[in-house]
Design brief:
There is one protein chain. The protein is of the alpha/beta class. About 25% of the residues lie in helices and about 25% in strands. It has 9 helices and 13 strands. β11, α7 and β12 form a beta-alpha-beta unit.
């Protein structure tokens, strides 16, 4: 029986030469949009996803060596209750090795995964078996049985070291939420502990492909830019007009990023407007008479 409570899950998708295997998008959708793309050309593969993904991590680990992959990926995947893979040829090769490396049962040939419950196709799909999955599991999902919703390119507001600290990123998150955007960051910011590591965008972080990317205090290092995919529109805010992010922007604003963020927050009602201080009329100086 399903507990009705969400458990942490992640899709693991093997990638060869930037090509996604059959069933990749369905598996990501079943994992709630959380995915690790492992193999070669993973950043390009992330940009080609047809499903909305909340968190995309990439592991550029070369050509398939599934035993070695399993050993390397097992510690990274340990926090997730369910690890889902497409039942593509590479997925079927990686899944049992990953299950062994993580000391978990493998439930192969699933058509559906829900919290603590898996539906498995047996006898060529003639029999459906419902299996309880109360503990941590590795699951392969049959391609072509779930379907997906079309992907909508997202809006992202991201901050870099040009913001002043955790308080600015909390404010950035509130402003992004107010306009229906997601919050992102650079790796430097994540390494300083100002945001969670799953928020940083870049070569070794999350790969995105947004409709609009607003970069606040981000210089535009190549490690960050390579994770941006091909955004339709870029707005950059920086005090350095010659930095790479300003050069790639459709709209470049040469101004203080924390100051602009505070103005946006007030205009959107995230923080109250600061009332103007009334002028106090000058009073004539008193003179004492002795």
């Amino acid at each position: 029986m399903s507990t009705g409570r969400e458990t942490p899950r992640i899709a693991v998708v093997p990638v060869r030469g930037a090509v996604l295997p059959a069933g990749a998008d369905e598996t990501i959708a079943e994992a709630g949009g959380v995915v690790l793309l492992a193999g070669s050309g993973t950043s390009e593969a992330a940009a080609s996803l047809a499903v909305d993904a909340l968190s995309v991590a990439t592991a550029e680990i070369g050509n398939p060596a599934f035993g070695a992959w399993a050993v390397a990926l097992a510690p990274v995947l340990a926090p997730y209750h369910a690890v889902l893979l497409p039942a593509s040829p590479d997925g079927r090769d990686l899944a049992p090795r990953l299950a062994a490396a993580m000391d978990r049962p493998l439930l192969a040939g699933a058509t559906e995964y829900r919290d603590s419950e898996v539906r498995l196709a047996r006898c060529g799909g003639l029999v459906m078996e419902q299996v309880a999955a109360d503990g941590p599991v590795v699951v392969t999902l049959q391609p072509g049985v779930r379907g997906i919703e079309p992907r909508h390119r997202e809006l992202i507001m991201a901050g870099g070291a040009g913001l002043r600290g955790p308080a600015d990123f909390r404010l950035l998150n509130e402003v992004a939420t107010a306009i229906g955007a997601s919050m992102g960051a650079t790796r430097v910011v994540a390494d300083m502990g100002w945001v969670a590591h799953e928020r940083y965008i870049g070569t070794t972080g999350v790969a995105v492909n947004p409709e609009l990317y607003v970069a606040l205090g981000i210089s535009g290092a190549i490690q960050h830019v390579t994770g941006l995919g091909n955004p339709c529109h870029v707005v950059a805010v920086n005090t350095d007009p010659s930095c790479p992010m300003m050069a790639m922007a459709d709209l470049a604003l040469v101004t203080d990023a924390p100051g602009l963020l505070e103005v946006l927050a007030r205009r959107l009602g995230v923080v109250p407007e600061i009332p103007e201080t009334p002028e106090i009329p000058e009073t004539p100086e008193e003179t004492s008479h002795v």
